Predict the structure.
Amino acid sequence: MTRALFSYIYIFIFSLHAQVLTLKECIDGSLKNYPDVKISFLNASQSKYALNVAKADYLPQININANYNPISTFALPQNGRFNTVEEKSYSINATVNQKIYDFSKTFSIVEAYKKDSEIADLTLKDTRSLLIFNVKKLYDSAFLQKQTLKVLKKDLDAKEELYKQALALVKEGLKTQADALNIQSSLNLAKEDLAAAKARLKKALYTLSLYIGKSIDTDIVILEDTKSTIKKEYPLFEDISRDNPLLKGLEKGIERDSLLYQASISENYGSMDISASYTHQNSINEYDTSLVGITYTLPLYSGNRISSQTQKALVEKQKAKERYNLKKLLIKDEFESLMIDLKKYESTIEAKKSIIISSGAAKKIVEARYKEGLCTYIEVLDSLSSYLHAKLGLLESEFAQKSIINEIEYLQGHVK
């Protein structure tokens, strides 16, 4: 609660002086702007229309045909001879066909399209989750570079001050010119590190701007994503395999391909339909005809088309199972690797915090001794380097930990 309150105060204070970029703003912007999400949404919509197409076979099929001929030649028998007559003619025909029973072929196809629609929804969910994960990673990367810049700026200030001290000690004859030159070399390296961090920040913000669809200034304030730092119970692989959208989609794919296999088998038995038609004919004579009946169609020979389709559907069903098994193995390997790294970084972060405390205290002592001429510049630079590496190491470890937590949430399909 205290941390959340501090974050709100932090946002308010900085908003008075600088523009603030929040993680929520980045996520909302990317979900609206990023083409991959739009494509997945359109695919989900398309799959629902495809389902309606499949359901159409349950409904009556009604057609009307009209034919008009300005000139038609008719041969009429008269006194044992045929005389030709040219007349205009037209006909209007209406037909109705209703499927009665096709050995569950239509049912299987409709159910398969339902699975397709569910797969499209799960794919959309995964696409959104993956996008949010990537945005979080970019946002945290930008935050990391911002914090790194602060640390490197302090390191640069310390080395500039140290260089001034060295020049003063050289004038007094307490240090040699070589001491000042070596410190100057370390100072130049610090400037180079600072420039590299600024470049990394620009890259992270530029990539993030492509996701959200607007430019981001390097002076913008980036806030810490505190949700990813909260310790919690992490899921087991059974939770991942149950909730992962891609695995759930592949499971639906197995069910879909099984239904299509059943539909291909049912095609061997044909179908039974009710047919009705009405025709009005006007050609020399005007008359009406109508027909109502039941038809049964049984395919006797199709050039091995039906049997080949059945075998193809069987292979697709088997492939769907293997795709699921493969994806499950890959996710399990990734998850176990992430959990190992997560435990490693939990220990690393605690160690880095201890190192920062000890190296910070040592740095102060060495700097004080250097001012009194009791130690060399090498000891001062070593203490500065140890403190700097500890600070940067902590930032990088916390960033890696957040990325792992976010990726675990993505694997489980719980990214928000």
User: Anything to note?
Assistant: The longest strand covers residues 81-101. DSSP finds nine helices and six strands in the chain. The beta strands are 20-21, 61-78, 81-101, 221-222, 271-283, 285-297. The chain has a mean pLDDT of 87.
